[in-house]
């Protein structure tokens, strides 16, 4: 009787260990199969345009990089875009570069 209960305990322990490892694999598979529905947007400004800062933002979950064309010229934003490309390659995280036309509003002066 003792041996039977001993083997039953061992079988239960191994079964629970197998279930835990299978559930971990299943959860990892689900997270990789279904991408995140929530998107984090970040505006790349002078304080956040370096490769290191952009890489940290990508690792934290940023999925959309927004460019504010109401400041600076096209060469400045081209350099920021190159920094974004470098950060994407180094972190292997995808990110969308977004330019909104409403950010370039014409202003009237008197």
From TrEMBL:
Gene3D superfamilies found in the cross-reference section: Phosphoenolpyruvate-binding domains
Highest taxon above the source species: Eukaryota
UniProt cross-references to Pfam families, sorted A to Z: PK
Segments forming domain Pyruvate kinase barrel: 38-100
MF terms in GO: ATP binding; kinase activity; magnesium ion binding; potassium ion binding; pyruvate kinase activity
Protein's UniProt keywords contain Cell membrane: no
Annotated pathway: Carbohydrate degradation; glycolysis; pyruvate from D-glyceraldehyde 3-phosphate: step 5/5
Cofactor or coenzyme needed: K(+)
Entry's EC annotation: 2.7.1.40
Keyword line: ATP-binding, Glycolysis, Kinase, Magnesium, Metal-binding, Nucleotide-binding, Pyruvate, Transferase
InterPro entries (UniProt xref): Pyr_Knase, Pyrv/PenolPyrv_kinase-like_dom, Pyrv_kinase-like_dom_sf, Pyrv_Knase_brl
Family membership: Belongs to the pyruvate kinase family.
Name this protein carries in UniProt: pyruvate kinase
Organism: Buddleja alternifolia
